[in-house]
Each structure stands twice: as structure tokens, then as C-alpha cells.
Amino acid sequence: MKKYEYFEATADIGLKAYGNDINEAFENAGLAIFNIISDTSNITPLDEIEFEVTSEDEVSLLYDFLEELLFYHETEFMLFSRFDVKIDENFHLKAKIKGEEINWDKHERKTEIKAITFHKMAVKKTDHVEVQAIVDL
User: Fold this and answer.
1) Whether the model pTM is above 0.85
2) b/e string for 55-89 if b means 16 or more Cβ within 10 A?
């Protein structure tokens, strides 16, 4: 199973991330976000940040998780390449994200993400989990 893929959205970019469970799908959504910003294969997971988020449903939790990733990217001036997510039945997420301080001499500068949108955001569960989001560039 592929980890993620992108799709076209007017002036934005959409992503679909996949996993065997919701934790893995969220982790792959984080990876997809940072591959829009830079090449995650060049991001060394040196530093770790932990955070928790609680939301009213899975779609809101996805939005809040991706917003937190952008928040730490912008406030800590970091890029992330490793994501460990644990979600419980009460829509409470615990995340450990690993990365390093941005160094544009080392890291490829791709596209800046301005915001996460709720437009067409979805969490679909079948024999695997698919999450979908659109980001504003």
C-alpha cells in the first residue's frame, strides 16, 4: 500500500494518506504535508516534539493534527520526517514528531503551506484507512 498521493485542487493541493489503521494514516498524512514543503528524505529526525489534541470527531481531529504540525513548523522553524500517532476512542491524539531545524542550504525548498482547509476533508475506513485533506498554498 502506498503511504500517500496528491491530487489537484484549484490553487491548492490535495492529499490522500493511507494506513492499516487510523494512526498510520495520520502519520502518513504528516509525511505528505512535509513532502510538500521539502524532501523528507533529507530531514534528519534529531529533535522530538510531543503534543496532544482532542476533537469532537475524526475529521476534526485530522484538521487539528495537521494544524499543529504547521504550528510547530512555523514557530519552531523545523521540518519533520517522523510521526508517531496514537488515537483513542474519545478522539484524543498523542503525537511524537521528529525532525530538525530548517537549513535551506541542506533542505530542498519546495512549496510553502499557508493553511489547512476543511474543504473535502475526510476519514474513510474500509479494510484500511484513507484520510483526505486540501492545503492552501
Assistant:
1) yes
2) beebbbbbbbbbebbbebbeeeebbbbbbebebee
Q: Which domains does the chain have, with CATH numbers?
A: 4-136 (3.55.10.10)
- Check whether 33 has a pLDDT greater than 90: yes
Residue 1 is predicted with a pLDDT of 86
Average pLDDT score over residue span 75-98: 98
What's the pLDDT score for residue 10? Answer: 77
Burial 103-136 (b: 16+ CB within 10 A, else e): eeeebeeeeebeebbeeebebeeeeebbbbbbbe
> What is the chain's mean pLDDT, rounded?
96
CB 102 within 8 Å of CB 79: yes
Measured distance CA(134)–CA(116) in Å, rounded? 6
β-partners of residue 88 are: none
